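>> received
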Amino acid sequence: SNVFLRSCSSGKVLLTIYIFFITLIQISILLLPLPYGITSLQTSFTYTNVIHGLLSLLFLHWIKGSPNFYEQGELNGMTFWEQLSSSPSFSNTSHNNRINANKVLVIMPTILCYAACHFAEYDRFLCLINLVVWATLVIAKLDGMNGVRLWGINTTIGIDDDMRKCD
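>> returned
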């Protein structure tokens, strides 16, 4: 079993780390001196949401494999989200924690999107950006999207080949 996966599957630990990093991004954006004052409180949450979305897509839905060398390639074709959402439960307790971790990873983008729209005072353009980021993150986390590689993007040669149609 994936040791890294087990260490990240606790919902409470994940929530604490998640909130810490989102807060760190938000504070960094507010302290970043950009020209023309574009880092107002109104836009800073949108920047935070976009950065969070890009990092989430990269680390949860793009990078494949396991950091554990001893996995012997069992997880090479799976993203971290696919590993987290489809791993066998280690016990009833860890299964409940795994579900909690999945919920945290879906609820936090929703809260961040709402906060970004609220602080942007529901500006149409900023809300559109925030909703596109939110929809992308939530759709990528749906059970039906596990193992799906849209238009062949992010396929792994030799692993995802059986999923392609042979013409």
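>> Residues 92-119 form the longest helix (28 residues).
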